[in-house]
Specification:
The structure is a single chain. By secondary structure, the chain is an all-alpha fold. Helices cover about 45% and strands about 0% of the residues. It has one domain.
């Protein structure tokens, strides 16, 4: 019964994703910045940030398609970790969305292959903090609201490949942010 519910839920997610991602013709809605040229995985070597096993374009998903960060990073409001989206989250859309050009289709094919073979995608982590620092994402997202992600991670909606924009592993950067917002900067706020 559980498998039936999961399969039914996946179909509902796929239908909702198709409706969310549906857009009128690209000539009417395409962002001129992202429409400038088609980017491929081969282009990713020239971008800032680490090359990922699948060329996942935040500028398409968060930028052009206006998907909220929390659609994929769904645990960020309730967990101290934002979480890397599971393949199941990706496949919620990509069971029906194949990509608009051969470059996108090739990357989506890699995703589908990993899903079929039940192999996790080994994403390269970009942002990380020292072990002695605690940064509960849920508290920061609740406090900063819609600007929370961009405050630390930059404008990922304009990044074909995500890169580190701020030195989030520098205590001075964090203290400056706390000072600007008039919030607790006691040592025990982050070091516990």
């Amino acid at each position: 019964m559980r498998k039936l519910v999961l399969l039914g839920g996946g179909a509902v997610v796929a239908i909702i994703a198709a409706l969310v991602l549906w857009r009128p013709s690209s000539a009417q809605t395409q962002d001129p910045v992202t429409a400038a040229r088609t980017l491929t995985a081969a282009d990713s070597a020239s971008f800032r940030g680490p090359k990922q096993p699948i060329f996942f374009r935040h500028d398409l998903h968060a930028g052009q398609f206006k998907m909220d960060c929390q659609y994929c990073h769904y645990s960020v409001t309730v967990s101290s970790e934002p979480g890397i989206p599971s393949l199941q989250t990706c496949m919620g859309c990509h069971t029906v969305v194949s990509g608009s050009d051969s470059a996108n289709q090739a990357e989506i094919a890699k995703l589908r292959k990993a899903w079929q073979e039940k192999q996790p995608v080994e994403w390269v982590r970009i942002h990380f903090l020292a072990r002695h620092v605690h940064f509960p994402h849920n508290r920061h997202v609740q406090a900063l609201g819609n600007t929370a992600c961009a405050t630390c991670h930059g404008d990922v909606a304009r990044m074909p490949q995500v890169f580190k924009t701020n030195n989030v592993n520098n205590m001075g950067w964090c203290i400056t942010c706390h000072l600007e917002r008039g919030v607790n900067r006691d040592c025990t706020a982050c070091h516990y």
